[in-house]
Amino acid sequence: MNARLFVAAFLCIASLPAGESLPVRWDATVNVNGVEIPFRFELSADGANVVGSFFNGDEPMPSSSGRLSNGSLLLNWDHFAAKLEATLHDGVLDGQYTRQGSTERSVYPFHAKPYSPAPESQATAPSIGGNWQIPTKSPKGELAWRLIVHQSGANVSASILRVDGDTGALTGTYRDGKFVLSHFSGLRPALFEITLQKDGTLDILQNGKTKLTAIRWDKARAQGLPEPTDPTKHTTVKDPGESFHYSFPDLDGHLVTNNDARFRGKVVLVNIMGSWCPNCHDETPFLVELYRKYHKQGLEIISLSFEEADQLKNPARLRAFIKKYGIEYTVLLGGEPSQAKDKLTQAVNWNAWPTTFVLGRDGLVRGVHAGFPSSATGDLHRQAKAELSAEVETLLKENLRTAR
C-alpha cells in the first residue's frame, strides 16, 4: 500500500461500520535515554473505537481504550497506567508514550511508519540457539543469569531470565555481523546487540552501554561456574514453625487477616506484587488459572499489592489490572514498594517482584517462589507452572491432622 492510499485507509478507521476492523501494522520505535528501540505495533478499529497493540513475541498487548480524531491518536493501557499520544502527518505517527512506574513517570518519544518487510540478510547467520549462562554480580546476590535463545536462520527470539523474572521476548535478526534484538510491549524497553566471538562466547551490548558475556550452558557447567539462583531457595522465612501473618486492607478498605475464617484450613498462596511490575503481569494469568482450577478444592490466593502513594489513594491502575486479567481471588493493598521489607518481617532475603509464599492448611510456609519466568522462556515457563501446580496439589491432599 503506498503512502497516499495508506493515509486514506487510516483516516477511514473512525467511520468504519460496527463489526468491521482494519488491522494496520507499523514499524515503530521509542527513544529511551537516547537509544532507539524498534518494535512491532498494530492498529485496528471497530467503528469509532481504535485499538493499539504492542507485542511480547507473538502475544498482543492491546490498549484498553482509544480514539482517533482529526489525525490525533490517543490510546490508553489502563492496567499499565500508560497512554500513547501521537499525531498522524504524511503517513507517519509521531508523539510520546507515557507510563507511571513504581517510583517515577517515564516519557518516551514515539515514532511509527507503515510496516515494510526488511530485506533478507544475505549473510549466513551463525548458530546461537540454545541455553547460555551470563556471569554477573547483581544487587539481588545473583552470580549468573540464563539466556535462552530460539533461532530459525537469521531470525532469533531470546530472553534473559533473572531471579525475579525475564526480559520478555527479545526478537530480531542477524545483520552486519551481529544479531540485533529488541523488546517493547508497553513495558521493559530493551535493545540487545549480540555478536558471536571466536572463542564461542557471546558478546552482548545492552541498551548501547552495558556489556555482558554469555557462555554456553554446558561449558559453564564444565568450568564449574556458579549457577543461576534457584528461585525456590532465594527467599525463606525466619521461623518455618510460625504461621505466616498478614493484615492489610482490601480495595474497599476492609481489613483482611490470616485469621479470617475463609482462610482457615486452606492452602494459601500469598503473592507479593505490584501492578507496576512487568513480571507480575507475566505471572497473574497463571495465578488466575490456578485459582479457578483449585479453589473449590481448598485453594485461596492473596495478592498483596504494593503501589505508589497516588495509587494507594485511588488504585485505578490496580483495578484495571484486576479487570484485565479477570482476578477473582483476594487483592490487598500492602503500602508503597519502599515499605515492603519493613512490612514483610517474616521474610528472609526477600527482594524479588513477584514472590509467592506457599502456605499449607496449617498456615505454615511450605515453600517460597521468587520471580516468574514468562512464556518467552519456553520450557522454563512450563516447568515453573508445573512445579507450583504440583506443590499446590500435594498440599491440598493434606488434611489438617496430617499437616500438623
Brief overview:
This protein is α+β, with helices and mostly antiparallel strands and 404 residues long. The chain has helices spanning 3-11, 217-222, 278-294, 309-313, 316-325, 340-343, 379-397, 400-403; strands spanning 24-32, 35-46, 49-56, 59-62, 65-69, 72-77, 82-89, 92-100, 105-114, 130-135, 144-152, 155-161, 170-175, 178-183, 190-196, 202-206, 210-216, 236-237, 247-249, 255-257, 267-273, 299-306, 330-335, 347-348, 355-359, 365-370.
Can you tell me about this structure?
The protein folds into 3 domains: 3-114, Beta Barrel (Porin); 130-222, Lipocalin; 236-403, Glutaredoxin (3-Layer(aba) Sandwich). Helices cover 18% and strands 41% of the residues. With 404 residues, it is of the alpha+beta class. It has helices at 3-11, 217-222, 278-294, 309-313, 316-325, 340-343, 379-397, 400-403; strands at residues 24-32, 35-46, 49-56, 59-62, 65-69, 72-77, 82-89, 92-100, 105-114, 130-135, 144-152, 155-161, 170-175, 178-183, 190-196, 202-206, 210-216, 236-237, 247-249, 255-257, 267-273, 299-306, 330-335, 347-348, 355-359, 365-370.
